[in-house]
Amino acid sequence: MTRIRVLGCSGGIGDGQHTTSFLVDGDVLIDAGSGVMTLSRTEMRGIDHVLALPLLDDSVGEERSVPLVVHALPAVIAALKQHLFNNQLWPFFADTER
Questions:
Q1: d(CA 78, CA 44)
Q2: Where are the alpha helices (DSSP H) in 2-73?
Q3: Is the whole model's pTM more than 0.70, yes or no?
Q4: pLDDT, tens digit, for every residue of 10-31?
Q5: Which residues pair with 14 in a beta bridge?
């Protein structure tokens, strides 16, 4: 049985509200908006698949025994490499050995 935990569904932030985010079976984070902030560090270490990679990796990346997996269309991966994981905003983690 699949378990889905709604971490946020408000479409905005403030007053305890978080943007859309779902935790599936404790290890898949879908549409990892600000709801990821509701997870404990222990829960973060259990995530295997995630969209909010920079924040999650920055928080617990060195504590994980296996790398995170990012699922996205090739155009999205290219945009992430160019605009986010560009070694200016965030390191390009795929080049990093832990």
A1: 25
A2: 41-45, 53-60
A3: no
A4: 877 778 888 888 889 988 888 7
A5: 17
